[in-house]
Amino acid sequence: MQSGKVSIEWLLFVAVGITFGAVLALWYLADSGLNREYDVPRAAFTMPSGPEVVAEGERLAQVRGCFWCHGPQLEGQKYFAEHQRGLIVVAPDLTRKIREYTPAEFARTVRNGVRPDNTSLQPAMPSFAFYNMSDADMGAIMAYIKSLPEQQGLEGEFRLLPLGWWRWVAGELPPNVAELIDHDAPRPDPAVDGAPVARGRYLAESICTECHSDGGRIRVPGSPDLIVASAYNRADFFRLMREGITVGERDIDYHMVDASKYRYTYLYDDEVDALYAYFRSLASAPVDVAQNIR
Ligand code: HEC
Ligand code: HEC
Question: Which terminal Cβ of the chain has fewer Cβ within 10 Å, N or C?
Answer without folding.
Answer: N
